[in-house]
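Forwarding these from the shared drive since the link keeps breaking.
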Amino acid sequence: MVVVIGAGVVGLASACAMARRGRAVCVLERHARPGQDTSTHNSGVIHAGLYYPPGSLKARLCVEGRDRLFQFCSEHSVPAVRSGKLIVGSAPEDETALRALSENAASNGARVEWVDAAFIRGREPHVRATMGLWSPDTGWLEAEAYVHALRAEALRLDVALLTGTPLFGAEPSRDGITVVTPRERIEAETVVNAAGLYADDVSALLGGETFTIYPCRGEYAELAPRARHLVNGLVYPVPHPSGHGLGTHLTRTLDGNVWIGPTIRYQERKDDYEQDRLPLEAFLEMTRPLLPEITIDDLRLSGSGIRAKGHPASERFADFMIRRDAKNPCVVHAAAIDSPGLTASLAIGERVADLVDG
């Protein structure tokens, strides 16, 4: 038996991958429904693999996962579109940053094309930019529908899904590890830690390594219905110079909403989605460089999400943590899964299954 802690997209994808290989799998989820944290509190963008350091897990699993995800969405009727996206700039220094991004994308095997102001106007007539990159393999999906499809696939594969079931602790056993919940004691050969924001806490409960997940909140605004015509697709600025995010971008969903965000703020709490939310004026200031004609009346506050980052604000990058625990070999971590975790989820699941088999 393999026990997976966490029924977000990574936990469910890992459970499906292992079940397809003949493993008996049980997934524990503390919430009443799967995917209630990071999996459904994000932009829903299917990334092409442009941004991540060549050779990193994020780069390799994003490119692999992107194609798997588009195929899965097609086969399971998950609303998704390979829309492409623009990454745009206007300042002289933006050209240097865009060239560096183009070279990085090529190293990762991701396609981008240089485009001029005329191309940008043709696709996004209200966006102010003089240069940009076009990523034809970027897309968007309805994240909640994807979670539902993964859940259905897991149940079809006879995965046991225990919702409303937090992990209380674990004990060594002759054949592996005994997982303790409020109602059960489950004998497991291996435990997969896919607990998202709480992966560091779960590792401690499992007798595993000590590491830290840093919660980083991203907030969103959206365009009012009367202003949604200003954006036709996905529009990104040059990546944020801090390295912590891709910049406050514009995301048009399949139902016509246009989201603005996410912002970036490290915080202490892992469950604080609402305290000290940014005012609309802050989003107006962020958005006008891309959409100069919007006004405060064109904006509405929207949702927020919390990234499970593997590095503090003082550092620029941490890779996915997907490996066996060095202290407790019965534990496999799928931790520190921030962006592009949604895109890479199916590829992460296969990698987890390889580790469990190994």
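-- next protein --
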Amino acid sequence: MKLAWALIAAPVATFPYYASAQTPSIPSAHPKVAAALAAIRADNAWTLEQQSSICEIPAPPFKETARAAEYKRRFEALGYKDVRIDPEGNVIATRAGKGSGPSVMIAGHLDTVFPEGTNVKVTRVGTVMKGPGISDNCRGLAVILQVAKALNSAGVETEGTIYLVGNVGEEGPGDLRGVKHLFRKEFPGKIDYFISVDGAGHGVTSRAVGSHRYRVTYQGPGGHSYGAFGIPNPIHAMGRAIAKIAELQVPAKPKTTFNVGVISGGTSVNSISATGVMEIDMRSESAEELNRIDARIRAAVQSALTEENARWTGTRGKLAVRIDTIGIRPTGGQSDDAPIVRVAVDAGKALGFSEPTVASSTDANLPISMGIPAVTIDGGGRGQGSHALGEEYDDTDKGWLGPQWAALIVATLAKVR
């Protein structure tokens, strides 16, 4: 985390487009851009069909292959010649620039939180579609396809190259593996602006909520609940730790949170378990506060171990504890005056809406932590029940504003000709 914090504070002179204090003007009146925006509105039914049909291709964590292959095929069907799937599984379609303008990447994550075997059938009543992942992130994937289609159909030309991406590994266990590969392996130092499209609505995420996630395992000899009584109990130690964690106090600003989200262990009611396992999530906008709550939780875990071992003074074994990292997301932020944030906000205003910037945990966390201008935008419409089996997307009467917004941001940043 110290490295990520240092990178946030590091100068960005290596990237010439970052340093400019002047916010590009929004080219909504440009004839070809206006034609692309009009095409998006007229083509709204196509966007919704993409969203629904993509969602019916399962994409559990680490098993996004089938959806990725279909996403690649759809880019190719739109006339994109340079489309590939990288070694990590990200789908990358390249729209070459006509000059030496900034490179812009717009991405939506392919993966869902739902396990293999989940019924992913999408149902529709009026403007409302319902199905696992229909908002998060089938909406984002459909928006990017519509942007790809509209830019081509309107003949929009840009100075900079545009990369349209369906990336893997955004959801919890994926630990941002898709964007980590993109920025560290595929395009190191080559992306000037990054936009993630994730979910529904009209929000702009400009600040990264970092997270630390651990699996804590207490281990001991285990035994019969009656015959071996008197030995330290891993589940009791875990219970002590949870009680200590539950009493921790954290600041409201910057908002900092913690949660024990999963617990497991034991084989029967009359057995002293050999293991007690819990998974912990902690989050904050502040790297300092995130590190502080991390240290306090680690101290609680160790204190619980010491207390449980001291509770039972026999010689038949002691407990040990292991802490495994299951996810680290860096923190970071940008001023609302940063050019990429102003472009996102101004593009929304040009389309008739305005939302305050917020902090969240998204694919943009990584580039923000590296000093690369990045935002996450919503995909329009209205979502409800994210990560639930009954997740919904309502296109309302102006769902097309989502892909229009994304196209306008991309055209602005890549410098339309």
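DSSP finds eleven helices and 18 strands in the chain. The chain has two domains: 2-208+331-413, 210-329.

- D.
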